[in-house]
What does this fold into?
Amino acid sequence: MEQKKTMLVIGAGIAGLSMGIYGRLNGYQTKIVEMHTQPGGLMTAWKRKGYTIDGCIHWLTGSSPNYNYHRYWEEIGLIDGMEIFDPEVFSRIEFKDGQVVNLYTDVNRLEKHLLEIGPEDEKLIKEVCSTIRKFARWNPTVDSNLGDNLKSIIPMASTMPILMKWGRQNMAEFGRLFKSPALRFVFGELWYPEMSAIGLMVTLAMLHNKGAGYPIGGSLPMAKNAEKRYLDLGGEIQYGARVEKILVEDDRAIGIRLEDGTEYRSDVVISAADGHATIFDMLEGKYLDEKITELYNSAPLFPSLLYVGLGVDRRFTDLPQMTGGLTLFLEEPVTIAGEKLEHIEACIYNYDNTLSPQNKTAIAIMLNADYTYWNDLYSDRERYDAEKKQAALQLVHALDRRFPGLENQVEMIDVATPVTFERYTGNWKGSFEGWLPTPQLVTKPISKSLPGLENFYMVGQWVQAGGGLPSGVMTAREVMKRICKKDGVKFSAKRNY
It folds into this structure.
């Protein structure tokens, strides 16, 4: 096959790597430039004192080959050679009065458990679990041909009334339907209140089907797998290369300029980087319309995080192995960065021994954080570091109340703030997944091109609400199809040259 156009991709996160892979599979000469020193973007991890702190993956949509989504992962080699762990309990909530709610992955077991907790909500619980069962029969297609679409749509027919009823509701509104205080919290406040209520049911349906498992080893091996796939296809990556400007002539993207002044030319430019930096910095805000302006002025973001990693000389065999984490109501509230917390969420990796030395455990505590607070504090490094240390010590002490002796078993503490995520990934305001999938945003497609600019596209979590790994691959695949169509080439997800 004759070599076709050249393609420059900004960012080696999952979206950028996917774009590079699909570009190479369709014969394009591709180069990825990445400001960090390793692949993955937000799908990352880092090591401290023999422990691995995983900054991303908790479960993988379509982890089972029985799901059509799994084809994405096969195409980009994401989980090649990785073992998938499917938990019996997704997440666990421990209330101050001793009540415990387990979100079992088996919907029949979940229904029985929820009825025991909230018998006054029997009708609603049965309706929710019935909906989960219906979604469990749905296997979304990854292609756009009519036959696959019909196969995907037919099982969805029974869920249409539910989609019409709950699709317009966010989690907060949905939670208020429950009479049980415990279930009102679980379904209304445990996830982001602004998110669409349907998202939780779809996730629980996938968990029921063992289609949302956790790849043992976590994020970085997955990023390395995608990087290997891309390089094996003949792609090129330049690390430590921060893009300063997207070069434009006659309203056509023609290349990029790095901070060190190096320039590269190409036929097509794709940004898999931060959306705000791309539009307002690299392109100087010259290619906007009302929709884009409104999006960046008012659409809600996933909040930034305060991410505390712990290494503990303990195995936590008394807890279920839960990929969704433990939500713990505290005996006494703690104040972190000026905010009083009644409960915390901790991922206790007692199901992934690769993240810690033998017979020990890695823990990650994730707290929603105020980006402005930490960004302002960063100008005074002494105060910034002291605040990080104080936050970690308070959280360790709070965990010690639940797990006596833990304070003396902690061997490693590492704290990442919203500023940390912004510095290493460039993500606007430190947001870890872009736009929140509110009922309004999930029904409104976000353009993957900019008005008035030719030969330029965007992929990743800033052009698809909800973020996560699927958005990276799906948007890259879609853009590659558009490019192929424009060039008169039949798209292929297999090497066709």
About this structure: Confidence is low (pLDDT under 50) at residues 144-150.
